[in-house]
């Protein structure tokens, strides 16, 4: 059984369709980030109090709010946990109550007290609490930012070392595109970005690179073997050759991540959502973003008159005809 | 070829057994218990409390300079120079004024004396000097304060009976401590217990009690002198707050207490007996001897006055706090406070997280279901798509997981919920390598090569790409390991272990299985792939 036995699709020819597709999703994401839901930061980054409460009966949100208000708790958000209409769990969030770190956890005691005293519909138990002060919020945000930056830098350097700079740049642009669309997806669906979501994003950076490298490896190998074909033809052929492998591995990883999304419970929901989107887009970007960008850059270099030597990187011995040498 | 195959097979079996040992040790009791003994569950799977607190080390610096200032004043009294701390924003600086040209050199030699070697002395002309604590001394003091805080918190937390508590310096910021207590579900209670041991000191009382802060201020003409401060509290354990004017420099601090026990006085009423360290005892003796019968001292806990006692006699190391109104409970809690030492500086909580035990169990359940579902899906697909070679891949996959769990057992790594996700991701990415190799082998077969040559070339060509792809993901995971904390670290670790194990199983094990198959089938073998 085999898919894609001899596919011969002109990938580079379709690059304008790809560009359009990418643009639609990126722009939608960016617009949402800027104007609609903004960046939905979780409590890890923006600080505050988040309490997950499990109710024994179906929770009545209006009553919950009344119970809290009666005890003087203000500015709370009460939301039911998505991902399971049968769940009896609610998330009560309070913004950062003070600008300093002390007394910020009085909100928790207030919420517990309010529910114990005023909520009559059913029993409840506190299942999870996260209280993050402003200092910790800032620290975690800084860390996440540095981690993503170092990751991209590390990739760039590694690819520069193994291939050439332009390969590295094309791959990093593809990964940046993936990250933008994923974060945009979170903004569009108004899902929280927590620390584990950042971990997922870093993983998909690695994974997208992974995928792009497979295509680049083949391009490099084919470039070394053939001197006469045009660059676009070589790249197209490389993509077609690796298509089977790319789709299969992405498909298999996607299967496992989908399993995580469906069965993995709601604590990991954001994490698995990021991976589901990331893997799809990561595979797409190797073909639709990285390869065309490589070709475009090299064509531009060729058109501007510089000598275009097809970049076969170190490590692959070209099998050209023997020439007499002194 | 056969001898090589035998060695390779033995190597694989040895690795397999080793990892199984890593996972369950030598099982005495049930299998599940053995599993749990080796693989530690993170807080998000076991349930528990996670706290990040910040130690206000500047208070420790302030106390140290307060004491030095006090002793300077005693030493400089004969030269009618005075030492004071003028700038509350710079607790590490002491200003000396009042030295006349006549005794300047004497004053100078006092300042340069051995007791003040942690300070740098600079002259600001006109008989004034500034003493600033050296940076190295400050850093030293900060580190010692942090270490003492960690020890004290540990002692306090031990009283809760937590198994495997984790209390250590937290490197995300300055002077922060991480406390993780699995199995506890009331963060408020833990915070109270830790914070109860906040800064404890005994100060001499200058005057008091006053009914209100205004009354206290009035008594000192609007502002207390620079070496005194106004504090409030309820002496004993009840009643309204009263205000006292205390000397800033403490006579003894919490860390000077070697022991404190509740007991009864000669009338049978509860009181507290305490023992100080020898150094502190000397200081205490000097002070109480000078002030017996006339002075009183205040026990200040976390900047609130908890008890005011008159000095009835000179006390060296053994002393007694007694008086009306001390209940037995109060005697017990106060002596416990004194006994477990106190924190050398006060703390505030930066982060508090609690995971209830039921959520932990649910998460494990969900994670395991997802892992099994994912694994089955992948294994079935490989069988259908690659037929015989699919069996090869599936075996390698199972071995991959066993090795991964074995690594975790050997390194005593902590398994978190994202860690389980990492295992699931390893399943998907692991089989990636097999797909790479098999696709290459199919290509080589299509070019007309024999089975053996196809396998050889397939593995040879795919090797470089496998390394490339693994390195990039491992690099991301390493960055996560360095920058992440807790659950995220768990994820990075399982991903790294899984990928390393994958290189072994996808390349070495799969190749061995192919070689074995080919050696059985002979020269004209046809691969089922």
Helix and strand arrangement:
The complex is a heterodimer of chains A (326) and B (529).
Chain A: H1 15-35, H2 43-46, E1 48-55, H3 61-70, E2 77-80, E3 89-94, H4 106-118, E4 124-132, H5 134-162, H6 165-188, H7 195-225, H8 231-263, H9 269-303
Antiparallel strand pairs in A: 1-3, 1-4, 2-3
Chain B: H1 2-24, H2 31-38, E1 40-41, H3 43-46, E2 48-55, H4 57-76, E3 82-84, E4 93-97, H5 104-111, E5 119-123, E6 129-133, H6 135-158, E7 166-170, E8 176-182, H7 187-196, E9 200-210, H8 213-219, E10 228-233, E11 242-247, E12 252-253, E13 257-264, E14 270-276, H9 278-291, E15 296-301, E16 304-310, E17 318-321, H10 328-339, E18 347-355, H11 357-386, H12 388-410, E19 414-415, H13 417-446, H14 451-483, H15 487-521
Parallel strand pairs in B: 1-19
Antiparallel strand pairs in B: 2-8, 2-18, 3-4, 4-6, 5-6, 7-8, 9-11, 9-12, 9-15, 10-11, 13-14, 14-17, 15-16
Helix pairs in contact in B: 1-12, 1-15, 4-6, 11-12, 11-13, 12-13, 12-15, 13-14, 13-15, 14-15
> What class do helices, strands and sheet pairing of chain A give?
alpha+beta
CATH superfamily of the largest domain in chain B: Multidrug efflux transporter AcrB transmembrane domain
Biggest interface, CB < 8 A? A-B, 71 and 73 residues
In helices, the fraction of residues of chain B equals: 40-55%
Strand content of chain A: 5-15%
Distance between the termini of chain B: 22 Å
What's the CATH class label of the largest domain in chain B? Mainly Alpha
| CATH homologous superfamily heading of the largest domain in chain A | Multidrug efflux transporter AcrB transmembrane domain
Q: How many independent structural domains of chain B? A: 3
Order of helices and strands of chain A: HHEHEEHEHHHHH
Q: Return the CATH topology of the largest domain in chain B.
A: Multidrug efflux transporter AcrB transmembrane fold
């Amino acid at each position: 059984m085999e898919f894609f036995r001899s596919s011969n699709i002109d990938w580079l020819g379709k690059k304008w369709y790809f560009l359009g597709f990418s643009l639609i999703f990126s722009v939608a994401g960016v617009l949402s980030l800027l104007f609609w839901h903004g960046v939905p930061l979780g409590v890890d980054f923006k600080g505050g109090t988040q309490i997950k409460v499990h109710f024994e009966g179906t929770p009545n949100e209006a009553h919950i709010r009344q119970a809290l208000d009666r005890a003087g708790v203000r500015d709370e958000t009460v939301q039911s946990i998505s991902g399971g209409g049968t769940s009896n769990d609610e998330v009560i969030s309070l913004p950062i109550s003070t600008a300093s770190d002390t007394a910020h956890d009085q909100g928790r005691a207030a919420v517990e007290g309010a529910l114990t005293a005023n909520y009559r519909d059913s029993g409840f138990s506190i299942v999870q609490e996260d209280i993050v002060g402003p200092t910790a919020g800032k620290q975690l945000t800084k860390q996440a930012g540095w981690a993503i930056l170092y990751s991209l830098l590390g990739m760039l350097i590694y690819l520069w070392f193994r291939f050439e700079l332009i390969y590295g740049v094309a791959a990093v642009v593809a990964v940046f595109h993936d990250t933008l669309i994923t974060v945009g997806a979170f903004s569009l669906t108004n899902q929280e970005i927590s620390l584990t979501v950042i971990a997922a994003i870093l993983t998909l950076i690695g994974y997208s690179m992974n995928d792009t490298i497979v295509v680049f490896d083949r391009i490099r190998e084919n470039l070394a073997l053939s001197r006469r074909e045009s660059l676009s033809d070589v790249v197209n052929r490389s993509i077609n050759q690796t298509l089977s492998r790319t789709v299969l591995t992405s498909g298999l990883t996607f299967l496992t991540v989908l399993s995580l999304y469906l069965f993995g419970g709601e604590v990991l929901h954001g994490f698995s959502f990021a991976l589901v989107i990331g893997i799809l887009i990561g595979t797409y970007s190797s073909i639709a973003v990285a390869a065309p960008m490589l070709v475009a850059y090299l064509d531009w270099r060729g058109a501007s008159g510089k000598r275009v030597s097809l970049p076969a990187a170190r490590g692959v011995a070209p099998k050209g005809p023997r020439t007499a040498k002194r | 070829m056969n001898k090589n195959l035998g060695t390779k097979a033995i190597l694989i079996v040895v690795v397999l057994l080793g990892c199984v040992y890593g996972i369950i040790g030598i099982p005495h009791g049930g299998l599940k218990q053995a599993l749990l003994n080796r693989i530690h569950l993170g807080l998000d799977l076991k349930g528990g409390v996670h706290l990040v607190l910040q130690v206000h080390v500047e208070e420790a610096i302030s106390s140290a300079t307060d004491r030095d200032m006090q002793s300077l004043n005693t030493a400089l009294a004969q030269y009618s120079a005075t030492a004071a701390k003028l700038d509350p924003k710079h607790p590490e600086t002491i200003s000396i004024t009042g030295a006349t040209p006549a005794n300047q050199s004497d004053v100078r030699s006092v300042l340069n004396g051995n007791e003040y070697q942690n300070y740098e002395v600079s002259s600001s002309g006109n008989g004034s000097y500034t003493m600033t604590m050296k940076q190295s001394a400050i850093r030293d003091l900060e580190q010692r304060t942090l270490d003492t805080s960690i020890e004290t918190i540990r002692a306090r937390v031990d009283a809760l009976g937590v198994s495997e508590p984790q209390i250590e310096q937290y490197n995300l910021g300055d002077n922060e401590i991480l406390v993780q207590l699995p199995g506890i579900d009331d963060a408020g209670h833990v915070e109270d217990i830790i914070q109860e041991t906040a800064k404890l000191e005994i100060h001499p009382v200058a005057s008091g009690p006053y009914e209100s802060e205004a009354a206290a201020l009035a008594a000192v003409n609007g502002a207390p002198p620079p070496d005194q401060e106004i504090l409030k509290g309820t002496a004993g354990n009840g009643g309204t707050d009263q205000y006292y004017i205390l000397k800033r420099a403490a006579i003894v601090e919490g860390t000077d207490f070697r022991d404190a026990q509740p007991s009864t006085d000669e009338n049978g009423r509860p009181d507290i007996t305490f023992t100080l360290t020898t150094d502190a005892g000397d200081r205490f003796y000097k002070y109480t001897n000078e002030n017996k019968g006339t002075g009183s001292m205040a026990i200040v806990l976390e900047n609130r006055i908890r008890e005011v006692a008159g000095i009835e006699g000179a006390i060296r190391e053994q002393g007694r706090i007694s008086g009306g109104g001390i209940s037995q409970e109060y005697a017990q809690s106060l002596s416990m406070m004194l006994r477990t030492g106190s924190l050398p500086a006060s703390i505030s909580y930066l982060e508090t997280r609690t995971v209830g035990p039921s959520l932990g169990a649910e998460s494990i359940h969900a994670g395991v279901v997802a892992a099994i579902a994912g694994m089955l899906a992948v294994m079935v697909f490989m069988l259908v798509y690659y037929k015989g070679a699919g069996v090869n891949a599936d075996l390698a996959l199972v071995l991959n997981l066993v090795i991964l769990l074995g690594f975790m057992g050997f390194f005593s790594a902590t398994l978190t919920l994202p860690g389980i996700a990492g295992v699931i991701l390893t399943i998907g990415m692991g089989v990636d390598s097999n797909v790479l190799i098999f696709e290459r082998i199919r290509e080589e077969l299509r070019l007309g090569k024999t089975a053996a040559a196809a396998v050889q070339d397939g593995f040879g060509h795919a090797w470089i790409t496998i390394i490339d792809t693994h390195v990039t993901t491992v690099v991301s995971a390493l960055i996560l390991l360095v920058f992440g904390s807790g659950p995220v670290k768990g994820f990075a670790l399982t991903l790294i272990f899984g990928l390393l194990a994958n290189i072994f199983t996808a390349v070495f094990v799969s190749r061995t299985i192919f070689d074995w198959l080919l050696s059985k089938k002979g020269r004209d073998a046809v691969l089922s792939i």
